[in-house]
Each structure stands twice: as structure tokens, then as C-alpha cells.
Fold each of these.
Amino acid sequence: MNHRGTRVLRLDALARVEGEAALHLRVDGGTVAETRLRIYEPPRFFEALLRGRSHTEPPDITSRICGICPVAYQMSACQAIENACGVTVDGPLADLRRLLYCGEWIESHTLHIYLLHAPDFLGHADVVGLARDQRAAVERGLRLKQSGNAILEQLGGRPIHPVNVRIGGFYRTPAPQELRPLAQRLRQAREDALETVRWVAAFDFPDAVCDHDLLALRDPGHYAIDSGTPAVIAAQGGPRALREFALSDFEQHVRELQVAHSTALTATLDDRRFLTGPLARYAINGQWLHPVAAEAARDAGLGDPALGGMCDNPFRSIVVRAVEVLHAVEEALRIIDGYEQPPRPAAEVPPRRAVGAGATEAPRGLLYHRYALTEDGTLTGARIIPPTAQNQTAIEEDVRRAVQARLDRDGPDADDEELTLLCERAIRNHDPCISCSAHFLDLTVERA
Amino acid sequence: MTTELGSATDPRPTLAVWKFASCDGCQLTLLDCEDELLGLTDRVRIEHFLEMTSAEGAGGERARLDGRGPYDLSLVEGSITTAEDAERIQHVRRISRYLVTIGACATAGGIQALRNFADVDEFIAAVYARPEYISTLETSTAISAHVPVDLELRGCPIDRRQLLEVITAYLTGRKPRIPGHSVCFECKRRGTTCITVAHGIPCLGPVTHAGCGAICPAYGRGCYGCFGPSSQPNLRSMLAQLRHDGMSEQDIQRVFRTFNAASPEHAPVPDLAAEEQERPPNTTETHPERPA
Ligand code: SF4
Ligand code: SF4
């Protein structure tokens, strides 16, 4: 390969992510000139096909955008419609919703940690290889994942596209004794989650710093999962003060742009690059972690979340995810312990002519929905902004930095195979859900 | 078929998982078999599964979108919505010995087949500011519309137990037990009181393919048909019952036009509904729930 000419690296298929994408990298001598994440997931046009449907349907229909985080879609959709109809769901129904969401956090994060991401750190192509070396760890991961799925199954009917969610609440709420076997399982899960934090904290992390603005929901008193107001911490270098904006103004701040190279839209936050997801949530909500999760975070070297500790190494996002799993287990146990069956399974949500917005924290980051309804509840418009579309620019920047650092270290002739692995890892740090954003990586590197 | 499986050095048959237009939920079902996953990998060699592994084949080369093959068992998720995918499925068929479609997308076009009833250019314009960057087909079609398929597994998503049944049946060289009867049978087996009979809740169970274990009725909700049509669905009786239980014409159209909108067995619904409207309401229709 001639490093004076344009060098093109091709990454044919990004594995261990959800969906299909390609990466194009152009290297001019020793400088990365361009990184382009091209998502070629075929478009499925949900926003278009929702028009003309009834306001009762988006929770079921939008869950089919993503099999990995269907609850996130169901919860953001419910909130947007309830917001349009002027209904607030609180008390035990809201607690049950959060319990269901905890199930998804546990399941989805654990899937990412053990099956998709950890093999990178331990030099394996997949969990099967990892299980040959560390059978007990993989079994622990599968058990932990299963406890998340157990919540989803008990409360939602099944783990993928749960059926028990409706606007206003549920079709059927469980009697407290039905949740008891879950609590027992979750106590085992707490041990497994704590072990997971220790396990991942001991991995070898490449040095990296990201300086994206961070966006997450903020709900004082809670580590935001299913509720809160959008809050931003500006990138390092700038003032680190936190600012919030109203959810109804979301689209004025977060603007989606379409680029020629991708079927997913990309986004900016007040014209700047930004990141949503675990790193953002940890920075904005860390002080409200359950004590056991906060302690595990401190021990894992993430700084003191009570004192505004942040994690700015994207490779350590796996540790933040593990801390979030532990938090979700604790939160689920707290909800089950305090649960009393509500008098009715769902609040009435009578339709009216209005526009409503809703946002919740999907495991990968903030997920925003907006719907416009007519008086009889027919949808006339829908807008869905998934986390991966918001993160795309930040992911491209992380890849650029990782490759640039390697070129600076190894010189312009750095090995293509190694660069490819590095790119994949930099992308997997963000657990991108490409099905959501329009889902696999095909890398091309052009070298000049 | 068992005689030709595996290779001289590794007797395990090879498994490949493919994705077309979909949500990944059906392939995720395989990773949701937490108790069986590691045992399964002792019995089959997972050679191509992008969501799970970055290696391909026994040599461990980097995984590619179109795989290398040949593979003994291919599981295909998703529908065909682009010209490239229409070609890729031909390739997948050529390198697969036994091909099973998993889920409503691959078996019936999925939720994205709603475009088949609309103007796709208008759909594109509704979602993308620069429609010219998007290339897509006007329809979303099932895998069987493009290549011969050995088995179709229904559901949105598929059921974990059915998936394991298909894989184990394949490994032991027998026919998988995937019954074509309706969800009503599963309600009976589960001991769920019929919510239509007891509470007048509209339910598509009588015309919907079994497989989920009748989850919705157990949660107090009418079946919404995510497993698609049962064999020989009696649509006329179903429509009468749904109306009787208070569904409007519009609700009926919508519920049949969701995750299995493009299923040919459910396609007559709009015509039947129009025909029915011209006839006086029929109040003596037998209840469709009773097993035949
Ligand atoms: S059938 Fe349903 S669950 Fe399966 S891939 Fe399609 S949308 Fe997802
Ligand atoms: S009609 Fe009755 S028996 Fe049949 S699926 Fe529905 S609830 Fe079950």
C-alpha cells in the first residue's frame, strides 16, 4: 500500500451491533480526512405509515421499529399521546411502567455488555469464543439478562414487543404476590450485576477522551429512565453548567439533517455535536444512583457520581452500562417491595385535537416521539427521533479520533486490519441500534 | 438430510442468520434462549450471524453482509424492500441448504408492507427532506415471493419455543411440530376463559395462527393477529363477531392491516366487509370461537 496515494479501508460488515451500517474512512497521508458512517438499513417509513392510524396504536406499532428496545418505543409513544390528550399517568401505574423499563434496561444492557461488547476487550469474535475461556462469566451474563427478560415476561407478556402496554397504563396489572418470584430472582441478579461491574472495570481500556455536549433527561430525585426534562452539559472546555429546555421545544434544539450517505438522519443540538446515552445520563443523573450502584461506580474508577463525577472515555461506557444495570435491578426491587395493585389497570385517555411530545431514556439514549391527533384520535403526523440518529455525528468523531491516534502512534502505514477493529470498537462503545435509526458495518478507508 | 451435514473436521451442521428489512426482534429471539444458547452452540456451528459474531466460517475471517457459505440451515429475518436485497436473497438461497423464514416480516412482508397500499414516493417525502437520496422498492414482500422457502415460522416476533423446535427438529432430521390451528386452541390449553365470551372483548384469535401461547387473552386483551392467519380462517364469521363485539369498520380494517397486512389469507377482509355492509346485519352467526 502506498501511503502517499489515497488509502481506502473497507469494513464490509459491522458485526455485533443491531442492524446494518458501513463506514467510509479517507486517510490523507497520516491524517484522517473524512469519516462517514453510512447506515444502509432499508428505510421502513414508520412516520408515514402511522398517519391515519388510531391514537391507541403507536405503542404496538412503533415497538416494531426495534426488537432490542421495544419498551422504550412503547413508553415514549404512550407519553406523547397522553401529553397530547392532557393525561398524566402517575402512582402505581407509573411505577409499573418503570419496572417494565428496568426489565428492558437489564436485558438490553446485559446483552450488549456480554454478547456484543465484552468479546472486544477479551479478544474474541463472539460470546461462544468467550464462553470457552470464561464459561462462568458468560453464564452469569446470561442469567442476568434472563432476569431482565423475566420482568418483561411477567409484566408485558413476552420480552420482545410486550403486549400488555396500552396508552393510560396496562391491560392487566399484576397482584403483588405475582411479582414475588421476580423479587427473589432479582436478589440473585443484584449479585450478578455487582460482579459484572467488577468484571468489566478490570478490562484494559484504550485512552480516549470525548468532548461532545451531553444530552439526557433529568428528573431530580431519580436517575432518569422513564421521565424528566431534557438537560444538557456542554463539552469540556466550555462552562460545565447544566441547562434544561422544555420538551415541547425539543425540535427547536435537536435538529435532524439528512445526509446523502445514510438512510438514517443525523442530528445536532443547538448546532453542535452531541451525545446521548449512558455517558450523558451518568454525567447528568449520577447523584441519584442507588447507593449500591453509586458505590460500585466509585470503586470502578468512574469518579464520585455524587460530586458530579463524569466519564469521558467512551471505551469505559461498558462500565457505566454495568452500573446502570445494577441501578435498574435495585430500582426494580424497590418498586416490587412498595407495590400495591392500582384500582384500575389504565387511566382513561380520551382523544382531542392536539399535538403531544414524549421522551424517555432508551438504553442507548434519549428517544423522542411527537404525534398530532384529530378530535377522534386519528393520527395526522408523527415524528420519531431515535438515539442512534442523534449520536451518529459523535460516533463519527470518536472513530476519527481513535484512528488518528493510531496513525499518530504507528505512522501512516498502520495496519488496515487493526484500524478496522479499532473502528468497530469505537462504534460499539455506543451500542448503536441501527434498526432504530433507519441497522452492521461496512468500512471503506480511502488513503491519500 | 443429516448425512450431508457438517464437514470432515467438525461434524456440527452450520447455521446462518440473515437480516433484511426488519426490527431484529426475531433474530434476537435466538439470543433470548439464555438457557439453551451455549448448549445449542455445541450442536450447531454458528457461522454467520452478524448481530452475534464478527467472525465467519471455520477460518474465522471477518463477517460480510452476504456471507460465504454454504450453510446447512439459514434463518432469514426481514422482508425485501430494496433492489439490492432482492438480489442478496437469491445469493442467500444459493448458499443455503435448508432455508427457514423467521417472523412476520420475512413470512408476510411485515409492518413495512403497509407501503403496498400507499404511494411510496409520498411515504419517502413524508420522512425524508431529500427523497432523491433514498432508493427503495414500491413494495415490501415476503421471502417466498422471491425464492423457494423450506419452512415459514410466523409471529411478530417469533416464539422462542417454536424456534427451538425448528432447530432441534432439523438436527434430528424430523419434521418440526408447528401446528396451523388457531390461537383459540392455545387459550383452551392454557385454561384462559374466553374473553370474547366472558367480556365481549373483540379478539382475532379464531383466525390467527397459534404459536404465541395465547398471551394477549391471558392479559385481558384481544388477540391482535401478530402471528398472521391460521390455516383456513373463517373470515366471514370473524367479521360478524368483531362487529358484534363493537368494532367499527375502520377498526377492523386497521387491525387486519398491521403486522401481517400483506398475508393473502387475510386479504379478502376489505371485500368481505364491503359486501357485508350491503346485507342486513346477521345476528344468528355461530360463535367463531368454538373449536371445529
Ligand atoms: S416480524 Fe416483527 S419482531 Fe420479527 S423482525 Fe419483523 S417486526 Fe421485528
Ligand atoms: S376468541 Fe376467545 S378462545 Fe379464541 S383466542 Fe380469543 S380469547 Fe382465546
Note: Chain B touches chain A through 65 residues (CB under 8 Å).
Amino acid sequence: MPTAGGSAGAVENLLPLALSRPHDAIASARSLLAADPAAVEASIAHQAWGIGLRQLGDVTTAVRQLRTALRLAEQSGRSEREADVLATLGATLGRAGRSREGLARLDRAVELSRGALTGRVLLRRADVLLVLGRHREALDDLRAAITRLRRSGDQVWEARSRNYRGFIQLALGGTRRADADFAVAEKLYAATGQEFEYAEARQNRGLVAYSRGDLPAALRYLDDAGRRFAAVGVVWPDLAIDRCGVLLAAGLSAEALAEMDQTIASGAGTATKRGELWFAAATAALAAGDPAGARERAERARRLFSAQGREWWSVRSSMVVLEARYRSGERGERLLRAVVAVARRLDALGASESSAAHLLAGRLALDVGRSRTADRQLDLAGRHSKDAPPIARSAAWLGKALRAEARGETRSMLSACARGLDALDEHRLTMGATELRALATGQGAELAALALREALRRDDPRRLLEWGERWRATALGVPPVRRPNDEQLVAELAALRDVVRRLDAAPDPSLERERRRLEKAVRERALRAEGGALGGVRRLPVDELIAELGETVLVELVEVDGVLHAVVVRDGRTTRHEVGPLAAAALEVERSRFTLRRLAHGGPRGAAYRGPSLEVLGTRLGQAILGDAQGLLGDREVVVVPPGRLQALPWGLVPALADRAVNVVPSAAAWLRARRFRPPSDRRVVLVLGPGLSAGRTEVLRLAEQYPDATVLADGDATAEKVLRALDGAWIAHVAAHGTFRSDSPLFSSLRLDDGPLTVYDFERLRRAPYRMVLSSCDSGLAKPVGADELLGLSSSLIPLGAAGILASVVPVNDPATAPLMLAVHEGLRDGQSLAAAFATARREARGDPVADAAGRSFVALGA
Amino acid sequence: MIDPDWHDDEKLIKALREALSAAGEVPAAFVEAGKAAFSWRTIDAELAALTYDSALDPLDALAIRSESAVLRSLTFASDGWTVEVELTPGAVLGQLDPPEVGTVTARGDGGELATADIDELGFFVLGPPPAVPYRLVCTTQSGTTILTGWITP
């Protein structure tokens, strides 16, 4: 590396050290200064000290050190030295929010310098320009800097320039060019041992991955960067900001907000960084559904940015304020004018938010009936580059769809809806984690709703079915990315089981903390899983569905604007029936589940009970959930597809369905897939008994008599690893165990085994789910509705893993009453009946005793 | 709060004396709550006493194939009426027996916390669940008022 100070070679090493290991550099600078060196060396030492302080976040003291360094440089009479310190001081002032003063120093430094040094000064001027949001000027400076630095062989500074240029390319939407710059920078940093900046380059590659919509890769890069920052002892608030962006894109908004608020509270960051932290927190609050909180945070950010003269940032903050006002319910001309003005400024600044701003302007204009403004704004919203990330593309397609709808151009509206959802499919499939895939669908809900509304207007039931299927249970359409050999995950899951088992024996706050830590570790590992090469999503082939249904009747419930419609496919004909408000159906579901739960407890309810009978409740439930569609069922077998929000529905209560085979599936496509799973050639039966079930024991022992060749795991043998090994690819599996549904974190819903809980994360390690599975436990059929219309839960996770049929409960079930029901189900299965048919027979036999009857109505047959 | 930094026995005794006299003064909120409870006594209400609480009945959990009773269920009964209540994270669900149309109100110390309709099957969903202790007041169409015991979330 060329030196500016001639004889000061050893001292010169302090400057790069200050960036990579600030604590060490400060210590060396102090001991050097103690020896009272000449002006040149002293200037370098103070400069390194200042840089070190700046890296550690203490900008005020850093500026003081740098002013001393400048004075010493002037004394030395070396213009290169003076230029170098001026540049550092200018950059630091810029970072401290004193950009104008900083730029003046840097302009002077450019005049004083020559050759490679000019390159380094230009880089720092670009940094200040970047803080100000003057991207194009910054790019010009960097282009010149890279040329000079490469020519003079200055690898470290070339790497820095490329890192900055990559960052700006990214801000302007050029992900490919950005990644190319970051990749070169990373290589140069590695070659020159720049640990801190290497971490920064990794972080920036994470940003590129994020911009491309590859969230798992982004999280991996950012976590790697975090470890490297920690290793050099630096707190780096930029990393929290980047993680916030990734978490938001993943739909994990509450977590993003918590992380930002925590970072702000920790007091980390320079003056300029504080504004950016508040800005990120505001976007997180907006996504988390807290518009008031978003507005407050965005106003704080905007005030900071205005004071620092950072237009690009303050305009973006204004946009968050306006969006928050819209989400708080504000409408009208005044807000419209403000949004249009901000959108125009975002256009001029080349900010990526401009499309979303035009979309909001378009919506507001539609709302106040300003059709020409709406048309123009939505047109602007619909413009996007092919390079744009999938979420931005889908937003642009939404703009196009809304515009076409306003113009009455149905065909182009539907095509825009389809292409917007395609973009989100692409986005979703880059992710390996079930949870992220499900959450990602939320972004397409409006596109799907536009198309559904149109199908309803035309009263076209087939189209209603197709669009209803297009954006329903899509996350369950493909199996999760398998991690069978992830030994660390296996170890963490085992540790978690151990901790929970010990916690059940005796509460212990430190064990409770350990449980939370392990759950967090397991979940984060899963979130980082890469998506597979899945080759796109297959649409529901309606003709194949009709052929496969044969005599069976399909009832798919589709919600449009809060009203439930039943699409019925029977004998190849598709009809639509308006059922009624979704809220009324939800109330009946709640009421039924309430009553079944009371009955499961055996309850204090005796003969004196004068409340509504199960028959009365069932009749009302049937009317609220199926309406007139009940009349079309005849005595056929039925497949029902409820929306995610109504999945916890005890279908056995509905009198019209009580005596027949009913299969429940999250989508018609899922039923079609389940029909095509073939049973394994070896008819392996697995019986599992979890601890603490007295009647369950009888149940499993009696079943063991009926299946003499069965693998029986009980009494200490029912451990997670043994159970998983046995379940893999089994023909019939029966698990009698305590079940827990975790609404706070549904993938930790579990079955209780001898060594602790078996969670959904464990199930996802199966190569192949059992062909048929009976989950004889409480709440095993529950799932949490998330995203647009997706489910996360124990039994729903088994469907994409290859389970053709699952019998599970949607409420707590009574232990003694469940045993005879289960024996009857297996009798039917051994006779060759389908799971739904066997269950229907068993349910009929349970009539008479109210508790047994309630148990029979608490289970549902999932799948085909 | 008393400064815990006692230097000698005298200070300690003084602190203890203060603590004892402070305990003798009844906080204003308690007085208000007492008055509120007294005024309720005068309304013509059926007082329904707690007859079952799942939180106090761990044996019951054994009959259920669930790890932990996430939901708490309660039963209040008077001579003529039963109110079955379930506390979920998002709402208070209830069933009035015998069923009758009416309204239900959750009342705490400071007055009304939430109110909802009781439908023709005697069912109600009251939400969000109060975060402070409350009693349910069910008023039926026929003019009966049923007051449950205190529910502590």
C-alpha cells in the first residue's frame, strides 16, 4: 500500500488497523504518541485514533482527534498528509450529520491530492453524498476512484470503493451490478486481511440476496456478518436495519419491530444512523399493523433527516407518515395531494418506493372518484424493471390490475392478477421454511380478491373455484425442504425435548429461559433453509379434479368481501351458493367448539342442562357454514374445503354430514394429490403410546392384539428418534398421546412422547409421512391460519409430506371416550375402508352416550 | 418505599413502625371497590357463585388428551341459572342456562369494561377479555339480572 508519509511506514499500518481492529489501533496510537513523535507520525496516530473512535460509535471524540491530526498535518507541510486527514475528517463529519461542513473539507482534500490518494478522497466524498442521498454524484466519484486505485494497485481502497459503489447500485435497483462489485470487494478484503470490512461485504451480499427476494440466503449472509462483527468487537446498527428489512419481507413484522426498538433503546449508532434506525422501526411498525406507532417513529426520523439535510431519506420518511395516515383510515383530497407530491419527489430521487407511492395515490384517487388522476397514478405504479425484486413486481402488477379494473378492462385485470401472483410464487419458492412460505402469501391476498370479486360478478362458479384455489394453501402444495442430515438441528430438538420434559416435572425459571433459547435456535435454523428447485407451481386441473371426484361431491368454501360462498362440484357440474357472512359462520364454529370442549371435560353439566343440544348446534352450524349447499349432498361422500380461518371446524356436528364419509382438506389440489399417494408395499403398522394416558394404554394394547405384527412403542420406548424411524413410510400409524397446539408458534405444536414433545419440526425430518395416520390426541388437527389462506399446524404439515389420510381432533377430547371410537375406526381400516369411511362408521356407533358422541364429533378426517 | 439502607436498630424499628401504620390506612381504591360492591348488593340480582374452576381441578386435566389446559373454564350457578364461562386468549365465551336473549357486561372496580349480546341460544362472546378482575352481569330479556362471582384473569 503506498504511503503518504514517507518514513512513517510502520505508523501507516495503524490506519487500516483502525478500521478492522479499532481497540488495538487506539492502544497502539496512544503508546506511539507517548513517545512524542514528529508531526507526520503524530498526525497519523491521531487520525488512526479518530477512525477507531468513529468505528466504535464515539463520533464527537473522533472529530476532536481528527482536528488535532489535521493541525499536525498542516504543520508537517505535506499536502498528501493534509488531504488524507481532511478526507477522514470530512467523512466523519458527514457521518455525524454535519454534511455541508464535511463536503467542504472533502472538496478541499480533492484539490490537494493526486493519484491514488485522490481515489481515496473521492471515495469518502461519495460516502457523504450517499448519506445525503445524492446517489448519481456519488457514483461519478466512485467510478473515478476505482480507476485511480486499481491503476496504483491499492487493493484495500479499491475494495472499499467497490463496496460503496455496489451499495449505491443496489439502492438504485441494479442488483446484478451490485453483487459483482461486492464479490470483488469481498475477495480483495480477504486477500488483505480486512476483517471488519470483509464482514461488511458479507452483509452487503446479504442485502443483494434480499433484493433478489432470496430471504434465506440473506439471513445466512447477515448472520455470518453478525458473527464477524462480534469477533472484531464492533456493534453495527446497520446490521439490525438490514435484518429488519429481511424479516419484514418474510412477513415477520412483530419480530422486526421488536428488534429495531431494542437496537434504538441500546443507544447504538451515530447521529446519522439514529435517523435510519427510526426509519426502519417506522416501516416495521407499519407492517406490524400499528399505524400510530409508525407515524410517530417516521416523524422522528424525518425531523432528524431534515436537520441533517438528507432529502432522499426525509422524503422516504414522509412517505411512511402518509402511508400511516392512510392505514389509520384517513382519505380524501388533502391526503391524495400530499401523496402525489411525495411520489413525484421519490421518482426524481430514483427511490424504489416510488411505485408503492403511486399505488397509494391511485387508491386514494379511486376513493374520491378522481378517475383521471387514478388512471395516471396507477399507470405510474405499474411501471417496473425486470430487475425489480418479486415483491416490488407484484406490487406493480397490483397497480396494473387496479387500473384495468377501474377502466373496466377485465381481461387485462385478470392477467395482471395472475402475473402478480406468479411473481409471489417465485418469491415463495426461494424459501425452504414452511413458516416463511405461508406468511409470504399475505402479499397476494388483494390480487386474489380482485379476481375472486370478478368471478362473482360474472357468477362463474368454475372461475371462482379456480381463483379460490389459486391462492389457497399454496404453502402446503410442496413439501418443506428436508434437512434430514442437519445434525445440529437434531441435537437442538433433542435438547428441547429434554428441557420440556424436565420443566413438566418441576417449573424452573432458568430451564424456561433455556426452552425459549432452544425454540428460537430451532426456528431460526429453519427460517434460513434454502428453497428447492421446484420448477413452478401447478395450477388446479379442474377437469382432472372432476374426473377423480366421480360420485364424490366437493364443497369448496370461498370468502369474498366477508361473505361465504359454497362452490359445489357434483357429477361434473359446478354451482355456486351464497352461504352468508363469514362472521356468522365463525360464531357458530366458536359456539360448537365451546360446547364440545365442555363435554370433553365430562363437565358439571348433568341431566339438568337446559341449553341447546348438539343437534340444535349442529343444525345451526350446518346452515351457517354450508347453507343451501347442504341440499345438494344427497347421500354421497363429501370433500369439504374450508377457508383457513374456519379450519378448526367439527364437521361431524353438522347433521347433514354426520352419517357419511367426509374428508376435510385445505385445498382441492391437496385432495387431488392425496388421492394419488400410493400405499407402501409393506403393510407396516406402528402403534405409539405417549406417557400419562390411562385409557390410551388400553386403546393401544387392544390395537396391538388386532395388529399382531405391529411395531409397538410405549413405556419408555416411545422416544422421538424411535417413533420417527418407525413412522417413516409406514402404512398405518396410530399415536395416542397428549397433544398441544401452540397458537403463539404453531410449528412447536406437539405430541407428548416419553422423552418429551415431538414437534412439527420433527415431523418435517420424515422422508415420507405414514400413508394413514391416526392422531388420537387433543387439538391434533388444529392449525393456525396465517398469510392469505394458509395453515400451520401438526396435521396440516403431514399432508405435503405424503400422508394420504389423517384422523385428528379439532378440540380437546376425552380420554376414556376416545378409546372405543379408535378401535372401531381400525376395524373399518382393516376391512379395507377409507379413513373417512371407517371414521363415519365408528362415529355412528358412538351415538347414545353424550361424552362418547362428543368425542366422535371432535375428530375430522383430513386428506383423501 | 422505605430506604432499605438501615444503619442501626432504631432506624429499623422506625421503618417497621411506619410500615405497620401504613398498612392500617386503607387505600382509596379499596374503599371505592367496597362501595361499588355494596351498591351491587342492592340491585335485584341473582348471585351466581363459582361452582367449578378448571384451574382448581388438576384431576380433570387427566381425562383430557391435552398437555396443558390452555383454556380456563368456570361455572357459576344460582338457584335458577347457570353461567358457563371459558377464558380464551382473545375472548370470554359464555353460555347461559337456560338460554335467553339478553346482554352481558363485564364490570370491574372502575365500572363497565366490555359488553356484548347474548344470543337466542344463550351464547355470548365478550372481547377482548378484561385484564383486571371483573364480574359478569347478565341481563335477560325477561328482566332477570344474574351477577357472577369475581373472575381474576
Note: DSSP finds 39 helices and 16 strands in chain A.
